[in-house]
Amino acid sequence: MKLDFHGIKFNIWLYFMLFAAGLLALVGGAQLLLIKPYYRSNKISAIKEVAATIQEYVIDNQWLDEATIKKASQFAINNNVCAVVYNDSGNVVYNSDSLGDSCIFNQTITVGSTQLQPLTNGKAMRELLLLSDGELSEVLANQRSDQEMILYGKMVQANLANFYLFVNSPLEPLDSTLTIFQDQFFFLAFFALILSIVISLFISTKLSRPIVQMKHSANELAKGHYDIHFEGSYFSEIDQLADTLNDATHKLSKVDELRRDLIANVSHDIKTPLTMIKAYAEMIHDISGDIPAKRDEHLDVIVREVDYLDHLVTDMAELSKMQSGSYQLKVGTFNLSQKIQNIVTLCQVMIDEHHYQLVIECPRNLMMTADEVKISQVIYNFLSNAFKHTPDGKKITIRAFEKNDWIQVEVEDEGEGIKKEDLPYIWDRYYKIDKKYQRATGGSTGLGLAIVKAILDSHHAEYAVESEEGKGSRFWFRIRRSAEWKIKI
């Protein structure tokens, strides 16, 4: 398989490897470059602790006896140091030598530009401390062994006098130690890099596998295979992404299905009246042209079909205009109670014909601020929809009431109901629950609920349908009582 240098798997692996290599380089550099300063710093800290203990034994102790001196000397031997204490006159009051000839107190030393012999020139040593504000720390070269030595000194005030304590300790040569560390580091670094390659390859594969699988699934989805399923993984974000994509796939499949239905149904809606018009025009031309009764009958059919086409084009144009944002609402305050009564009056013939039990539950003079014509269209569509799906003699209820700062309108029927899986799609144009499309009758074009949705969206209204199969449906919407909502389509 060709290596993709821009692929997520390679880049995750590369970032892990760069991180591992950078970490090893940082540790190696710190080990090689900082070990000497670190060792010296720790050595000086250790000598300061040794000096503090010798001070406790020799200077701070008011009763300096042979046993205490012996303890101090043994402590100096145990810590591989030599020590000397001077008084204000430069005389040696204590000397412990565990290094023999290597002790720099037995040699001529150079501190700065001053050259002196510590044991025979105590005053000069005292002056060194005084010039260094009472504390001195120097790294000197042993003239006899050419080994680096640490000289530490401090001025101590105790027992109503000043004392000058110096401690000398060798610095161990680090060259051999550094060589061992380098060999060890390169050995460990080699195996660390091998381990990093394996681990980073495993992690990059684990991280990238679900994303790569999703990419392949997305490619199939792009080809129109809506039955594809996006698999999740151990990671919650990937699971959430998979769920989102699966939901989007389901919705895309519905959209594609609706698109096919739309094309088929619009074609059917247009083709049927055109076929009827053509057929009856030919009949008038060939048969009934000279027979007034037949001719008028055939012309009525043509006019009816032309009216249907006109309604279809008008509804589609209105829906398109509202959804495009170019329609301006004509907002005003009107009597909703009276408007509902007027709509019911228009439908009285159908109510009487099918013996519907129509109930109106609405307070008198309920005022609403909205587009009166469009809200009337919404209520009429809800009522018309109830007529289509309610058996003869059943009950249909229209309610309107105030609820907090909202005015809510409901149309409830005892009809056939809607399946739960179909509820999210009933607002789509031409969506048919039974999938067996038949041209709408009674002047309807099949776009009613799609137009209702566009009108209510333009009013920033809340709306929904609640239905149980076999028991009926309840369509409702609510609009804010005031006109503070923005009029924007």
From TrEMBL:
Localisation: Membrane
GO biological process: cellular response to phosphate starvation
Domain HAMP, first and last residues per copy: 205-257
Domain Histidine kinase residues, every copy: 265-483
Domain of life: Bacteria
Keyword vocabulary terms for this entry: Kinase, Membrane, Phosphoprotein, Transferase, Transmembrane, Transmembrane helix, Two-component regulatory system
InterPro entries cross-referenced by the UniProt entry: BphY/WalK/GraS-like, HAMP_dom, HATPase_C_sf, HATPase_dom, His_kinase_dom, HisK_dim/P_dom, HisK_dim/P_sf, Sig_transdc_His_kin-like_C
Example of a GO MF term: phosphorelay sensor kinase activity
N-terminal signal peptide: none
Reactions catalysed: ATP + protein L-histidine = ADP + protein N-phospho-L-histidine
Any Pfam family: HATPase_c
EC number: 2.7.13.3
Name of the protein this chain belongs to: histidine kinase
Organism for this UniProt entry: Holdemania filiformis DSM 12042
